[in-house]
Specification:
Blueprint lengths: L1 E8 L1 H5 L3 H11 L2 E8 L3 H7 L9 H8 L4 E9 L1 H9 L12 H5 L8 E3 L3 H11 L13
Antiparallel strand pairs: 1-3, 1-4, 2-3
Bound molecules: inosine-5'-diphosphate (IDP) and magnesium ion.
């Protein structure tokens, strides 16, 4: 089934110059980037995006980190895209991520784990709606 996921190159990876490497892996897998932008996330968007973690002890640190510098946000489409991307990302804790995964190759700390990807169809729809308009994910020509 064709799916769409929300993927984000986190501030640590953008600062380390890993954006191209990560986008390249997504493209070479055969997935399509149907929307993309680089921006510093607003605090409001970050708190909404990570709303499920609001009561966790690391929530404040997580919001501080994700708004600390530019991120590259993508809408990524393809057959089984959500699961394919989660598998490519590796486990949340990079020390438990297999080599060959993005986190397993480029990260060591859970708080700076390089990439975000939606964990299911409902979170994908929710996260895409926070960060993109429908027009930003469309290949149709802009209205004149
Ligand atoms: P995921 O990014 O693999 O979906 P989640 O459990 O949804 O993992 O957690 C969201 C993000 O919160 C993680 O990617 C990680 O950066 C951060 N995080 C998770 N657990 C911890 C923790 O124990 N300490 C600090 N940051 C954490
Ligand atoms: Mg998650």
């Amino acid at each position: 089934m064709t799916e769409r996921s929300f993927v984000m190159v986190k501030p640590d990876a953008v600062a380390r110059g890993l954006t191209g490497e990560i986008i390249g892996r997504i493209e070479r897998r055969g997935l399509a980037i149907v929307g993309m932008k680089k921006a510093v996330m607003t605090r409001a968007a970050a708190e909404e995006h990570y709303g499920e973690h609001r009561d966790k002890p690391f929530f404040g640190e997580l919001v501080e980190f994700i708004t600390s510098g530019p991120v590259v946000m993508m809408a990524v489409e393809g057959e089984g895209a959500i699961g394919a991307l989660r598998a490519m990302m590796g486990a949340t804790d990079p020390l438990k991520s297999a080599p060959g995964t993005i986190r397993g190759d480029f990260a060591l700390e859970v708080g700076q784990n390089v990439i975000h990807g939606s964990d299911g169809p409902e979170s994908a729809a929710r996260e895409l709606a926070i960060h993109f308009t429908e027009a930003e994910m469309s290949s149709a020509p802009a209205p004149v």
